[in-house]
Amino acid sequence: MSNAIEKVDCLIIGSGPAGYTAAIYAARAALKPVMYTGMQPGGQLTITTEVENYPGYPKGIQGPEMMEDFKAQAERFGTDIRFGYASKVDFSGTIHKVWIDETTEVHANTVIIATGASAKWLGLHSEERLNGFGVSACAVCDGFFFKGQDVAIVGAGDTAAEEATYLAKLCKKVYMIVRRGEMRASKAMRQRVLNTPNIEVLFDSETKEILGEKSVDGALIYNNKTKQERKLDVTGFFVAIGHQPNTAIFKDWLEMDESGYIKTIPGTSKTKIKGVFAVGDAQDKVYRQAVTAAGSGCMGALDAERYLAEAGIH
Ligand SMILES: Cc1cc2nc3c(=O)[nH]c(=O)nc-3n(C[C@H](O)[C@H](O)[C@H](O)COP(=O)(O)OP(=O)(O)OC[C@H]3O[C@@H](n4cnc5c(N)ncnc54)[C@H](O)[C@@H]3O)c2cc1C
Q: Ligand 1 test: best mutation among 115, 241, 285, most atoms within 8 Å of CB?
């Protein structure tokens, strides 16, 4: 028995800040957008606590509450929001085919990909337990909460080096935990870290445990060379070992960089396939903020609207 096929003008995949913003614009432009939320309705901000840097919330707001506001605004203009996961796509024709949960088949004139990215974690139980209570994967988002305090950051690449120097401007002391005997970061970034007086790099080191009952109050570090354990008195613990864009299902159809971030035509949300647009963290490995994701969601909807008008569809 074949499944019913649904035809839509604008399909939005993902319900983070990028997806909801695209939905608000597309719905107000009468594109009748259909959105599938994926397994994390509301996206990455639903796993954080306080968001203080999103304009319009002068007193700050809890991440999950902010995403409820985004959702309400998208619904107000008629976005059809559904729980479901895009499991397969076929972008070979002018009608773009997307399968939801392996069962529903959607034929869309335009697709806005807003599937975001997921931070990579160390995999410690204590890291999961204290996530949002001193453990964070975003120094730019959460560094401010640790002003004047001692923190640790794990990672050895350019992003980790950049985040360590960012934290060093706010915090009293930053311990940078590097697994190997050297950093992977570029020479210039390495030098920046090593020249920052309040960063102490702990080479050959791994995190055994993040300590604390209700919030972080330390970290247990093991040195692979000396075989010694050391307790760091830190109140913040940042993980900067990379992000994984949620783009695997598109890899046969769209151009991506080596990490899987979708390539768009610079200054637009357009991919190499006409009518398919990529927005938010799924195509942005540089800024990765809610406000930049929302901004690019707006671009996606405007690009989709123009494409439909030029193609004489809408
Ligand atoms: C702990 C933490 C704290 C943060 N704090 C801040 C902060 O204070 N301020 C700030 O500006 N930014 C913050 N960020 C970054 C911010 O959350 C991201 O930049 C932003 O959420 C990216 O938005 P997005 O819409 O591109 O993707 P995401 O928020 O990642 O949402 C992706 C969406 O796609 C869906 N999805 C994925 N795959 C599929 C699929 N196959 N089918 C259907 N749906 C799918 C998911 O369910 C999800 O709804 C934080 C991030 C983290 C992890």
A: 115
200, 221, 239 - which closes a domain:
239
Asked if residue 251 and residue 178 are part of one domain, the reply reads no
Residue 222 belongs to a domain with what CATH number? 3.50.50.60
Atom of ligand 1 nearest to the CA of 100: 42
C-beta neighbour count of 61 within 10 angstroms: 19
| C-alpha to C-alpha distance for 211 and 222, rounded to whole angstroms | 14
Q: Which of 11, 65, 121, 141 to mutate to test the pocket of ligand 1 (most atoms within 8 A of CB)?
A: 141
Could you identify the atom of ligand 1 that is nearest to the CA of residue 119?
Answer: 53
- Measure the CA–CA gap between 195 and 187, rounded to whole angstroms: 12
From the CB of 205, is ligand 1 less than 6 Å away?
A: no
Which residues, at least 6 apart from 53, have a Cβ–Cβ distance to it below 8 Å?
141, 289, 290, 291
Per-position pLDDT tens, the chain of length 314: 456 799 999 999 999 999 999 999 999 999 999 999 999 999 999 988 889 999 999 999 999 999 999 999 999 999 999 999 999 999 999 999 999 998 899 999 999 999 999 999 999 999 999 999 999 999 999 999 999 999 999 999 998 999 999 999 999 999 999 999 999 989 999 999 999 999 999 999 999 999 999 999 999 999 999 999 999 999 999 999 999 999 999 999 999 999 999 999 999 999 999 999 999 999 999 999 999 999 999 999 999 999 999 999 88
> Residue 95: which domain range?
5-118+243-310
